[in-house]
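dude i think i finally got it to work??
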Amino acid sequence: MSHLAILLWSVDVERPDLAAAPFVYAAAAAALDAEVEIHFAARSVRLLVAGEAAARSSAAQGGRNLHAFMQDAARGGARFLACSMAWAEYVREGEATIPEFSGHAGATAFVARSLDPEWRTLVF
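look at this
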């Protein structure tokens, strides 16, 4: 089995036109039977808050909302993991999360994936 870890570092809810691509790549990798993890860092953790991704379109002229792209990846089995430090910085206590949220994994978890010869990584 192939393994792919994707780090969302510069993806931001304020730039939804650039935010769909990582989920397209994740869905493609999952369709090729790869195990996929998406690591949300920095402001990208806001995509895991209920309503944030659904309220943003991938195109100025009414493309799909970002949550639809995220659901495509999740249906393929992608796990959504949030950086604990980013979570503490950008998510308010009590905010609901999307159902696809899998839990927390910090920088060490992603670095471990990048050092493991069984895993490939992409950074957005």
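The chain has one domain: 3-123.
im so relieved honestly
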